[in-house]
Amino acid sequence: MGSSSSPSCLLVGVFLFLAVVVSAFPSVVQAGITRHYQFDVEMANVTRLCSTKSIVTVNGQFPGPRIVAREGDRVAVRVINHVPYNVTIHWHGVRQLRSGWADGPAYVTQCPIPTGRSYVYNFTIVGQRGTLFWHAHISWLRATLYGPIIILPQLGVPYPFTKPYREVPVIFGEWWKADTEAIIHQALQTGGGPNVSDAYTINGLPGPLYNCSAKDTFKLKVKPGKTYLLRLINAALNDELFFSIANHTVTVVDVDGVYVKPFDAETLLITPGQTTNVLLHAKPYYPNAMFFMTARPYATGSGTFDNSTVAAVLEYQNPSRSSPAVFAKNLPLHKPTLPAFNDTSFAANFTGRLRSLATARFPANVPQTVDRRFLFTVGLGTSPCPKNQTCQGPNGTKFSATVNNISFASPTTALLQAHFFGQSRNVYSPDFPVVPLMPFNYTGTPPNNTLVSNGTKLVVLPFNTSVELVMQDTSILGTESHPLHLHGYNFFVVGQGFGNYDPAKDPAKFNLVDPAERNTVGVPAGGWVAIRFSADNPGVWFMHCHFDAHMSWGLKMAWLVLDGELPNQKLPPPPGLSVGSPRRSVAPRRPRRSPLPWRSARGGLPPRTDTSTRPTWRSSSPCPRGGRLAYELYPVPAQQEVPCCGIRRSPMSGYFHPPDNEAFSALAPRRKVLDVTVVLYQIRCASPDVPVMKKSTPRRQSMNLESRARFSC
Ligand SMILES: *[C@@H]1O[C@H](CO)[C@@H](O)[C@H](O)[C@H]1NC(C)=O
Ligand SMILES: *[C@@H]1O[C@H](CO)[C@@H](O)[C@H](O)[C@H]1NC(C)=O
Ligand SMILES: *[C@@H]1O[C@H](CO)[C@@H](O)[C@H](O)[C@H]1NC(C)=O
Ligand SMILES: *[C@@H]1O[C@H](CO)[C@@H](O)[C@H](O)[C@H]1NC(C)=O
Ligand SMILES: *[C@@H]1O[C@H](CO)[C@@H](O)[C@H](O)[C@H]1NC(C)=O
Ligand SMILES: *[C@@H]1O[C@H](CO)[C@@H](O)[C@H](O)[C@H]1NC(C)=O
Ligand SMILES: *[C@@H]1O[C@H](CO)[C@@H](O)[C@H](O)[C@H]1NC(C)=O
Ligand SMILES: *[C@@H]1O[C@H](CO)[C@@H](O)[C@H](O)[C@H]1NC(C)=O
Ligand SMILES: *[C@@H]1O[C@H](CO)[C@@H](O)[C@H](O)[C@H]1NC(C)=O
Ligand SMILES: *[C@@H]1O[C@H](CO)[C@@H](O)[C@H](O)[C@H]1NC(C)=O
Ligand SMILES: *[C@@H]1O[C@H](CO)[C@@H](O)[C@H](O)[C@H]1NC(C)=O
Ligand SMILES: *[C@@H]1O[C@H](CO)[C@@H](O)[C@H](O)[C@H]1NC(C)=O
Ligand SMILES: [Cu+2]
User: Fold this and answer.
1) Percent of the chain, pLDDT > 70?
2) What is the reported pLDDT for 422?
3) Which of 89, 258, 367, 428 has the CA that lies 20 to 30 A from 336?
4) What is the DSSP letter of 143?
5) What residue owns the CA closest to ligand 9's atom 2?
6) Cα of 425 from ligand 13 centre, angstroms
């Protein structure tokens, strides 16, 4: 950056070749209704395992309230923060088509909601049916801040399986007697592994296998001969779970809100972040017995884990007794047998049985061709112990965790805001590595040097890029299954295996016909998994291990998917901006002394047809050598606030939405491999009056602007 005394305009043509396919969004979505919820985030005292603690809840409930919606409905949740923590809520698995502002991960799509403030999450549920869940997405608050999302089919549309008599959410959690925020803060200080939990819970209850918890047992009461839909959700923080019901097999019909080809199982595996709908066919007769439903971990890492077992009880209503329902006591109690903690072959077998339903009504739209291939290692590592401190990680270091050996450094500005307002410089860099920078035998002898690097790096994808991603576990500090969760998308699990992924041999075995479609997948311990998705949802999308311990250590990264060319392929502006009192959309004040530095095509940009956003288009003084400049002024909706962190507001007229230089700099070198449909020009303008900078300092501003007409300056 240099300074210049007189405004000059330097034009650098950057030809971007963006593959734009006609909108991938369903053109006919049966109009749903809007479901309004108010979530008051407040403290509540809860007693478990003989000890009481104050926990963060929604509306004082633990687990939190259910969100119930039909496919096609809009959901608007006003979250009001009454607790002394920053809070965000994530609607886990909801695709958030063009509503990335409502996704929820702190410092990724939004700034946290401070104490005393509120935020409206506003999204529609499109093309999903089954069970998802909501949870806090900041620090470890999701330990107690979670609840089910139940997505029913559209009215009049049946399930593609036996209509259940009743539907019951079964949500697994993890309970610590101590304060979980203190536990993770201390662990990050010392570098050691965080303390493991004291119990698992089912619907918030630990059950009779724990001390003083017999009264805290979830009971599922059923009638003989009826079919029940259990909506299983693993909301535990750090543990994959095996689950089984004594003397009963269940039929798996849906995972992560997508129907699967039904199959029977005595035992299920469910990782944190996954959901599974199963049909429980109650025995046709009164069995004169009670049955435990138990869950305990599938644990592959070398660290310690909570090896306890949560139990709930399945009870039959005795039909021979008169109503009201009678549930006999002192009946024989059967217990299921769960696999060994380290039964990786069970895990591989179970996940290998999952197949998309893949019918005409519920197709599996697996990308058949691939535009970009990625290989990411996922696993642990170490970072140095600060001087003057002793650390409790491996050999006196601190635990760390990475994707491609990069431990994600959380920004203090929300990535999506930085991107949208063209202020991504020094917030993120667009150079997340496509493959590991230092290849090694990932599942063989680990390298001696386990030190990781860190950074806030993103992968930038043009709209509609077809992506294939192989995630490869590493043996650094021990192989381990990592449940990787992608925001904003479902992906297809096209292949998995043990050892190192072999790009020459393994793709031949991929299932491109009916692979499971989901949002969270366990990378096999000492193995790899290949997924495909089509980047049809613009925004910044977090991808991370759904073990909170690993996420805290940095096993996370983000994808930036750019807008497409059509209006319905663009991310609308944020729901509101906390810029003081709401203002009508008015003509911007002109700069007093010099023209605006941002210039675009002659005549400015054409107004968009998308009426949901409707920015005000303004054009101002012409560029010295022709051309015009244009910018958008977004009206501030009343009664909405959006926490902002680190985004600079122009003193002139609010927030600008220029293209994102960091993102484009990542794509420019790739232009040869993309198709031309959009031409972008990089314009370097110098001005003594750059709004977002200090007014007194003349600076040169570099900016990309999109144009549809040729621009000459
Ligand atoms: C929790 O219990 C403490 C100590 O008894 C009490 O001071 C506090 O008000 C209670 N909090 C709530 C939300 O009920
Ligand atoms: C809470 O979030 C706000 C932004 O919304 C941020 O400025 C502040 O530093 C956060 N506080 C803590 C303790 O992280
Ligand atoms: C949610 O968004 C829709 C579409 O932008 C808008 O019409 C509606 O008013 C919003 N609802 C709330 C409660 O903000
Ligand atoms: C439950 O299973 C056990 C062992 O598999 C068997 O002994 C018992 O008879 C079964 N009981 C019922 C009521 O199905
Ligand atoms: C759980 O771990 C503890 C401590 O390592 C051990 O003593 C106990 O036997 C284990 N329990 C089970 C069921 O494996
Ligand atoms: C699983 O653990 C058992 C006992 O701890 C051990 O004998 C066995 O080798 C382990 N299996 C695998 C596959 O690691
Ligand atoms: C799982 O195991 C069963 C029985 O052991 C076997 O028949 C089936 O083929 C296995 N499935 C997969 C996908 O490995
Ligand atoms: C480190 O410890 C030494 C001796 O204990 C002390 O003199 C020094 O100030 C400490 N440095 C820091 C950065 O704390
Ligand atoms: C710790 O140090 C020992 C001996 O120097 C070495 O054998 C071991 O591999 C190291 N462990 C880790 C995790 O670096
Ligand atoms: C990687 O390590 C494994 C386990 O030690 C070994 O079997 C395999 O041959 C190694 N692969 C290569 C390419 O060296
Ligand atoms: C790793 O350390 C071992 C023992 O210290 C040494 O023999 C080996 O050469 C080292 N490997 C590399 C790649 O540096
Ligand atoms: C990130 O890496 C830099 C060096 O590149 C280092 O100074 C810094 O301490 C690291 N941060 C963390 C959190 O490890
Ligand atoms: Cu992990």
Assistant:
1) 77
2) 78
3) 258
4) G
5) 395
6) 29
Residues 543 and 635 in one domain: no
- Model confidence pLDDT, tens digit, residues 646-701: 777 654 445 666 667 778 777 765 433 222 222 222 222 223 222 332 222 223 33
The domain of 88 spans 1-158
The letter for the amino acid at 326 is V
Residue type, 132: L
pLDDT at position 575 is 77
State how far the Cα of 367 lies from the Cα of 467, in Å rounded to an integer: 8
The tens digit of pLDDT for each residue in 336-386 reads 999 999 999 999 999 999 999 999 999 999 999 999 999 999 999 999 999
Probe residue for ligand 4, chosen from 281, 285, 334 as the CB with the greatest number of ligand atoms within 8 Å: 334
| Whether the CB of 475 sits within 6 Å of ligand 9 | no
Instruction: Tell me, rounded to whole angstroms, the distance of Cα 142 from its chain centroid.
Output: 13
Total tally of structural domains belonging to the chain: 4
- Is residue 581 located within the same domain as residue 485? no
Which residue's alpha carbon is at the smallest distance from atom 7 of ligand 7?
A: 349
636-642 mean pLDDT: 52
Place of tokens 């809007």: 34
E strand map for 432-566: 453-455, 458-461, 466-473, 482-486, 491-498, 517-518, 520-523, 527-534, 539-545, 556-561
Output the CA 341–ligand 4 centroid distance in Å.
24
410 shares a domain with 283: no
pLDDT tens readout for residues 521-577: 999 999 999 999 999 999 999 999 999 999 999 999 999 999 988 889 988 877 764
Residue 568 domain-assigned (yes or no): no
Cα of 120 from ligand 3 centre, angstroms:
9
Backbone angles phi, psi at 346, to 5 degrees: -60, -45
Residues 165 and 148 in one domain: no
Token code pair at residue 645: 């962190």
Is the pLDDT at 8 greater than 50? The verdict is: no
* Statement to judge: residues 191 and 136 lie in one domain: no
Of the listed ligands, the closest to the CA of 60 is: 1
274 located within any domain: yes
Domain match, 199 and 64 both: no
Q: Taking 70 as the threshold, does the pLDDT of residue 437 lie above it?
A: yes
Asked if 295 and 400 sit in the same domain, the reply is: no
